[in-house]
């Protein structure tokens, strides 16, 4: 047999040096690039530090970033852009093929105040006894463990305004994030706005068609008298609250003055009577909207907001000239009148946008169907509202209307990290939410509906 040739010592040394050099190069490259960790739904980073890479970022307030990075630290967006470095210690999500949107906001709900609306009165904390309840605060009635909370956020809604109902002054609405174990932990603005249901005159509707003309006239006159009396009661209470606030301020400056009597109703109403906080007024018909705005002007109520607004398309110039915001709650509803066009409410948002009226879109739901908010916006987009505007109508615009645009509504450094990561267009029914962040927390997407699916999917 032929003997193997001895390997030269120089070759061995050269080969060893090459291996060592290659190892050092690989080690240096690995040291420069953070390890890509697959982010699990609901996983918590002990440092509160996350990085979402290679994502299509829909900032809403600026241009779309086709392949960018978002860094989340301590609940807020630290950086966003196409060339953002991933900090050491961050839990990394490679979102290639996915899109990131700001969380959606619904300003017309009663989420957390109602669990089972019919048949279980103990699960409803929506109204107070009496007509004038400015001291009633929705934040104290919020149920953070409601099944509606987890179902709603799983569809990309991260914040809602929960409004009390009933009476003329229903109470104070609370702007909340849909994550937390206590109402105060969820609260973004515990006293975000005062809710007023503007008095209206109704003669009884369709049932009166069978009545005599005299009966109809009598009922209408009675309804008008009742409405006028309620408006006068409201006017007097607002004036009393303004006077009460001035008396308290005078006493705070000069203790020699007689101390005003304490009144929880007037004390709660005073900041709104002084124009320090927004007032939301429920009104749908044209005459009600006009009357509500005239009342707000008379009482010098700042930032009045119309909730409902089904007839807002009829008075766009009136609304625009007075800088009135509208929360549309009837996008998916049928027309109010039999002779209206079928798409009148579908196209309401588009008409407001074309006229330059500030608006946003809401479900107007008590809880169970708030999850359908993207479909309301999608319907408005299908009937004339530009798609970019439809997205803003459920993200940036509601944040601006309620005075929270410095924290919510778009993807910008310094804002709360309320982020929705999807596999498609946020307003499309076929799109799935893959990850969800609320105030920088990676929130699990499990909910009552997914639990029922897992429980019954294998039954035969």
Structure description:
There is one protein chain. The protein is α/β, with parallel strands linked by helices. It folds into 2 domains: 118 residues, Urease, subunit C, domain 1; 305 residues, Alpha-Beta Barrel (TIM Barrel). The strands form 2 sheets. Strands 1, 2, 3, 4, 5, 14, 15 and 16 form an 8-stranded mixed β-sheet that branches. Strands 6-7-8-9-10-11-12-13 form an 8-stranded mixed β-sheet, with helices on both faces. Helix 4 packs across helix 5. The longest helix has 41 residues. The radius of gyration is 28 Å and the shape is globular. The N terminus is likely disordered.
**Fold-level CATH name of the largest domain:** TIM Barrel
Name of the CATH first level of the largest domain: Alpha Beta
CATH superfamily of the largest domain: Metal-dependent hydrolases
Q: Assembly type of the shown chains?
A: single chain
Q: Low-confidence parts lasting 5 or more residues at pLDDT below 50?
A: 1-36
What is the mean predicted local confidence, pLDDT?
A: 89
Roughly how much helix do the residues carry, as a percent range?
25-40%
Strand tally, please? Answer: 16
What shape does the CA trace take? globular
End-to-end span in angstroms?
A: 73 Å
Order of helices and strands: HEEEEEEHEEHEHHEHEHEHEHHHEEEH
- What is the domain tally? 2
What would a concise description of this structure say?
The protein has 460 residues and is α/β, with parallel strands linked by helices. It has helices at residues 9-32, 147-153, 183-186, 213-253, 264-273, 286-298, 316-321, 348-355, 373-382, 387-392, 396-402, 448-456; strands at residues 49-57, 65-73, 76-81, 91-94, 99-102, 104-109, 157-162, 169-177, 187-197, 279-283, 304-308, 325-328, 359-361, 419-422, 433-438, 441-442.
């Amino acid at each position: 047999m032929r003997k193997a040739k001895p390997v030269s010592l120089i070759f061995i040394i050269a080969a060893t040096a090459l291996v060592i050099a290659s190892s050092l190069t690989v080690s240096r490259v690995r040291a420069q690039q953070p390890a890509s960790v697959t982010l699990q739904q609901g996983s918590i980073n002990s440092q509160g530090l996350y990085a979402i890479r290679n994502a299509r970022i829909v900032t809403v307030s600026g241009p779309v970033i086709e392949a960018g990075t978002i860094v989340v630290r301590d609940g807020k967006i630290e950086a966003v852009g196409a060339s953002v470095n991933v900090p050491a210690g961050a839990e990394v999500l490679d979102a290639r093929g996915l899109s990131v949107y700001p969380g959606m906001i619904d300003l017309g709900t009663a989420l957390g105040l109602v669990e089972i609306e019919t048949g279980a009165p103990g699960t409803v904390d929506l109204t107070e006894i009496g007509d004038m309840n400015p001291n009633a605060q929705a934040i104290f009635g919020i149920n953070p463990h409601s099944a509606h909370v987890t179902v709603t956020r799983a569809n990309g809604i991260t914040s809602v305004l929960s409004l009390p109902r009933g009476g003329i002054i229903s109470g104070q609405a609370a702007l909340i994030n849909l994550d937390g174990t206590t109402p105060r932990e969820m609260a973004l603005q515990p006293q975000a706005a005062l809710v007023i249901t503007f008095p209206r005159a109704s003669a009884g509707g369709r049932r009166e068609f069978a009545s005599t003309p005299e009966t109809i006239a009598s009922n209408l006159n009675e309804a008008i008298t009742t409405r006028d009396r309620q408006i006068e009661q409201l006017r007097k209470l607002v004036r009393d609250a303004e006077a009460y606030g001035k008396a308290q301020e005078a006493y705070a400056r000069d203790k020699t003055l007689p101390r005003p009597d304490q009144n929880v109703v007037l004390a709660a109403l005073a900041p709104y009577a002084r124009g320090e906080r927004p007032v939301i007024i429920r009104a749908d018909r044209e005459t009600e909207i006009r009357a509500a705005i005239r009342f707000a002007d008379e009482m010098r109520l700042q930032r009045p907001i119309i909730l409902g607004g089904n007839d807002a398309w009829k008075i766009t110039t009136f609304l625009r000239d007075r800088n009135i915001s509208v929360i549309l709650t009837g996008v998916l509803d049928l027309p109010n009148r039999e002779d209206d066009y079928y798409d009148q409410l579908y196209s309401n948002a588009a008409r407001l946008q074309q006229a330059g009226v500030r608006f946003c879109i809401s479900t107007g739901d008590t809880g169970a169907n708030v999850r359908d908010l993207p479909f309301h916006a999608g319907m408005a987009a299908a009937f004339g509202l530009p798609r970019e505007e439809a997205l803003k109508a459920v993200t940036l615009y509601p944040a601006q209307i309620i005075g929270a645009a410095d924290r919510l509504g778009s993807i910008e450094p310094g804002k709360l990290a309320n982020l929705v990561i999807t596999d498609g267009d946020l307003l499309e029914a076929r799109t799935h939410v893959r990850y969800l962040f609320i105030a920088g927390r990676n929130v699990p997407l499990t909910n009552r509906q997914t639990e029922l699916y897992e429980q019954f999917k294998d039954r035969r």
